[in-house]
User: What shape does this take?
Amino acid sequence: MAQKMITIEQIGSPIRRDFNQRRTLIGLRLNKLHRRSTLEDTPSIRGMIEHVRHLVRIVEAQ
Assistant: This one.
């Protein structure tokens, strides 16, 4: 069975953000503005996205 994937894009800068938010962006494979990352849609990834929801947006969820 194929795993659901989610594509996210970074829309906010990590400058002047908490260390944990910076590390979360790196964990999501994002570290520069407008960079996109496609990841498996799991509860842990959703939790990471929720942690930095003001810095990213969901482009597409398949």
Q: What stands out?
A: The mean pLDDT is 93. The two ends are 14 Å apart (CA to CA).
